[in-house]
Structures are given as C-alpha cells and as structure tokens.
Amino acid sequence: MEVDLFKEIIVPVIGGLGIFLLGLEFMASGIQALSVNKMREWLARMAGTPAKGVMAGTLITGIIQSSTAMTVMTVGLVNAGVLGLRSAISVIMGANIGTTLGNGLIALPLGPLGLLFGGIFATVYCFAKSDRVRNISLATMGFSLIFYGLNLMTGGLKPLRKMPEVLEIIQSLDAGTFGGVVVCVLVAASVTALIHSSSATIGIVMGLGASGILSWETAVAFAVGADLGTTVTSWIASLNLSKNAKRAAYAHIAFNFIGVAVVLILFFPALSLMKWLLALWGIDPGAPVIVAGQETFPGVPIAIGFFSIFFNIFNVIILFPFVNVFERVLARVGHTSDEDVEDYSVPRFLDRKLIADFNTALPAVSQEANRQLQAGAVFLDIARDKKNAPKDPVEHHAATDVLGREIRSYSAQLFQEGLSRDQLDLVASLIEEVDFTSALSESLYQIARRVKREPFSDAAREVLNLGLERLDQAMNTVLFHPAVQPRMPAGHSVVPGVEELRWKALQSRDVAAGEKGALVALLGSIERAEGLIERIRAERASVDRSAIVVQTQRPTSETPSPSGSTGFDPVPAE
Which of 166-175, 403-412, 495-504, 539-548 has the lowest mean pLDDT? Predict the structure, then answer.
C-alpha cells in the first residue's frame, strides 16, 4: 500500500511539533504565574540535592513512562526559574533510569490521553474564575499537549517502518563488529530523534528482535542508540528558552553522549556478562522457541530490557560524582558579560536554618531588605544605559518581585511565641519596609521601561537625566549609612527639584510636544518614587532598631551590609 507522504507523514509531524512546542509554552507560562515560592520549596524537597534529584527524576519518569516528557518538563521548569541547573542535571539523570523501569508500558495510549486531558483542562481554563485555577489548568493543559504532540509526531513517522526500503536497511545491520555496533547506535539514535520516544524505539526493536529480524546483539545495540536519540527532543524544546534551559538540555545531551561512549567501549564484555547472568535464570536470548509453528526469540526483549536498565544505572553511577563539574562547565556555555550581573531572584542571606533563632534571623532579614533596595536601584542603571546593567528591565523586574516575596515569607515566620513587644514591632517594621521597597521597585521598573521604550531628543534627554540623577541621590539616602554615604563634590550644583524640571521641559523650545507629555509623565513617576523613598526612611526611623538589636543580635554572616554595619542602623529622616 502506497504511503501518502504529505498527508500521513509531513502534516502530522509538523502539526505534532507545533502542538508540542505550544504545550511547552503553556506549561512554562502556567508555572511562572503560580506561586514561585511554593513551587521552589516543593522542588527543594524533591530535588534539593543531586541524590534527591536523581530519585525524583526516577520516580516521576517511572510513573509517567516518558523520559522525553520528563526532560522537556525539567527544561521548562528551569526556564521558569523554578529549578536550578544543578538540580536539573540530577533530575535528568534519574529520568534516564525511570524510563527503563516500565518498558512494558510503552503501548499505553499516552497521546490520546494527552488530548483528552488537554481538552478537559482547556475547558477549565476558559470557565475558571480564580487566577490560581486558571494557571494550574494552563500548566496541566500544556503538559498534556506535550504528550499529544509527541504522539502525533510518532504516528506520522510510523509509515516509514512499513516501507520495504526501511526494512531492508534494518535487516542489513549487524552488531558483530565494533564498527557495526556504532552504525546500529547511530541508526537507532536517528529513528528515536524522528519518533521522539526512546521507549517507542525500544518497543519496535523488541518486536524486530523477537521475530528474528534482528539478532539479539544488534537489538541491544539499538537500545543503546535509543537513549542517544532522545536528546534531540530536549534540544528542540530549549531552542526558544532561556540560557539556563538550554544548558539543562545540553546536560541531557552530554550525559547521554558520555554514557554511550563508555558503554560502546565496554559493549562486548557487557554482552558476555549479561549473557552469563541471564543463563543463571535459564534464559538464552539467542535460542529460538517455536510458537504456533513460527520461530520466535522471547529472550531478546528480556535481554533488551535488562541491558537498558543496567546501561542507564551504570551511567548514573559513573557520572553522578561529576554533577558539580557538569554545572560549572555548562554555566560557561553561551556565557556573556550580562550574566555576571547579580541574580536578585535568589536570596543571599535568608538561610532557612536561622528561622528558629530569632536573634540570628533578624540581621539576615535586614541585609536582604537592603539588597532588595540595591536591586531596585539597578532600574536606574538600566534607564541610563550603564555598561554593566541588565539589558531587559522585564526580566530584572521578575527577579526583584521574587526576592520581595521571599523576604516577606521569611519575615512572617519570625513572629514566634515569647517575643517582646519591641521585637514584634521590629519585625513588623521590617515587613512594612520591604512592602514599601517592593512598591518603589515597581515604580522604578515603570520608569526604566518607559525610558527604554521612548526615543528622546538631546534636549529632552538632558531634562530626563537630571530627574534620574535626582532620584539616584534620593536612593543613596536609604542605600548607604550616613558615615559612608557618597557626598557631592565641592562646587557641584544641586539637581533642580521635580517641579522646576517639569517647567524646564514645558517651556523648552527644543523639546517636541510629544516628548513634553512623556517627560511630564516620567517626572511624575520620579516624584512618586521619591515619596516612597521618604516612606522607607520614615519607617526606619519609626522604630529604635539599634536599641532592640543590642538586646537580641548575634553576628550571622561575615558579609557586611551595604551600610557597613549590622544592617540595623536606621538612617534618620531629614
């Protein structure tokens, strides 16, 4: 029967790829919109260490029976900022083990189930009133569509297996020599890259081996190549994602390539060892069995499954000690100077182990709160196009938002029994300061975003720069302690007030009418930001923090706060 190349192969493959990528996008968007703090804590419990990451990857992949889907999901979580590169590497290692634990489940109709659940959660998403329910539905719908997209691609390529030319190539393969083994591995890797499922490839190979079309040695060589081919899917999934997500995909590629290279060297000794072990159970993979008058080889699927499990566990054992090396090397892949900018989404001082000790947790909160202010000040660097400032204000805004929520969550846990009134007041004051700082960061973000978006003439830029300089000087009053606060050089003119700058813009003949409107709006935002800075200064002055800390504080870190003190020296309001 002739195959319709366009209808049966091209259409489902391209359509499946599009649905697959759309599912990945939906899943990442849903995860990002959900509570990042809770997701971070949940994954910290499951994949907080490399050992736990391997266990989590093995368990979850063993349940969903798709290392491809698990790897793609891991890449998506890294892109969402929920999973770190180090944890992702260990999860991917575990995924390779998990997919081997149930090759008997490869015939399950995961694709149709993906479409079914995708439709269910799409309906929930459309009619849900709660943002939380909509975000969960979006993430789950995306994950379901990943399965369905993979199913479409697999179905689109199935007709290739029925083509005489393809079958002839398969029967010509032989793993009797090292060169033959390499060829078998590469062919299996190519087939798996097309089908996007190592389990499906192994299932095909099991059928070919059991029917006698392939020798058991050749079938095992194909199983090795199947693991290599799965790396293509994670690479495709990472093409339009963040650098860290790409690095997670590269980790999958590197892990599988290194593992296959090692196993190729040990292939023939490993076959001899496996044959000896199988003989202990009375299994000879090369011995035929007559069933209904047909010669079959039931030992071949057992040999393939056994070798697949052994191969992946062996890879994890030899490469697990090098997880940190993987992380360091991959962190340099595609590295640019932009990445040297501090990642403010990750708290530096909020050690969860300190929460139980009120005395040591207090300075940690104060130091992190001051760091949050530093993160807000970075928006001014972005607005003025400073050399080492982040290029994208949106990405930096997401980081500052995560940091603010982390500080509030951490601070709330300090309300413990037995605290004095002054101590309770101090914690409440810190939380209010963090809230004002979050509002300030939001205002500074809007300023930076509009400055980057609007093209200004030199005359308009002059007024704008004066406004930004004024705001920068106001930020210094809360960022630095008076003893170390930068001072204006002798003879330096004081920056005009906002009202004076507003009239300067309105009366200037060199500033176009459209620019005047944009400048007035920006100067209004600068004035509101100054008001929030004053609120922070007033909040610090509302509690005698130094006096309270004298009674409670013990040093927690060798890293000084930006004020050069313990982080509790209030800057008095003027």
Answer: 166-175
First-to-final CA distance of the chain: 88
Round to whole Å and give the CA distance between 449 and 443: 10
The per-type count for the chain, helices as H runs and strands as E runs, is 23, 2
Q: In 17-136, at which residue ranges do the beta strands (DSSP E only) sit?
A: none
**Cα–Cα separations (whole angstroms), residue 240 to 28, 32, 145, 152, 195:** 12, 16, 18, 21, 21
Cα 78 to chain centroid, rounded: 1
* DSSP code at position 214: S
CA angle, residues 103, 107, 112, in degrees to nearest 5: 130
DSSP code at position 487: -
pLDDT at position 137 is 92
Give the distance, in angstroms, between the CA of residue 114 and the centroid of all CA atoms in the same chain. Answer: 23
Place of tokens 């101090």: 426
- Tens digit of pLDDT for each residue in 275-325? 888 888 888 877 777 766 666 777 777 888 788 788 888 888 888 888 888
Are the beta carbons of 434 and 366 closer than 8 angstroms?
A: no
DSSP state of 565: S
